[in-house]
Design goal:
275 residues, alpha/beta, Aminopeptidase, Alpha-Beta Plaits, two-stranded parallel ribbon, 7 helices, 10 strands
Length: 275
Amino acid sequence: MLYALQTIERSSLADRIGYEVLVNADEEIGSHGSAHMLTEAAKRAQFACVYEPALADGTLAGARKGSGNFAAVIRGKSAHAGREHHLGRNALAAAADFISGVDNLSGKRDGLTVNVARVDGGGPNNVVPDLAIVRFNVRVEQPEDSGWLLEQAEAIINEIDGREGYSAELNGGFTRPPKPMTPQLEKFFHALRAAGEDLGLAIDWKPTGGCCDGNNIAAAGIPVIDTLGVRGANIHSAQEYAKLDSLVERAKLSALLLLKIAGGAIANPGATETH
């Protein structure tokens, strides 16, 4: 990103294109603190570039799923597991029912997945556990599926909450709306492909279940390509790597894309068509 912008500043087209750079540190946890800044910056722009890593072969993320993070808090009643087991209300057992219910929602809508990621609660073997917390992530392809998922999860939590001796509540929400492949965004990708051809690069893209700040920016109404960063693979694992030779390649790609837009060889991706 830096070297692409330095190239712009050294060119004769420097006064033909403006830019704003936003660097945030909370993207991996949902951009809770920076989401409003992304939205505000998007409203001042006509298009956006995000420097998430590309795949190892240079393939970009096209459409992206939306994402939500939730926690179900289930409370029961502790009791001695031997003497007074019948007086206890096992929060972990109720949590197991909740987990089974939300897990079964995966696939009930096209592309919808529920991933139960962590369960906290319990204690000594001789005590009926009175607290369980179930944390889970949801991915959706269509915006309307977010509301459907919430209705289903609330129905499951309400059934547990209605049991004698139990209380249950659902916390969390969707922080990344889906990023669909709109006609405007598709044109932006084809413009990038044309720039790649001039550099001898084959640019392709495909939908992904992953999400990033591009989701938030797209929701603000401007086209965004959000995998213009380094090529690499095995993201979020101990085997993650970046291909160093792609640093120059990707800097050239961004620089040429911006120069073509500034010079008019590529239409402004955010321009509104008139007839």
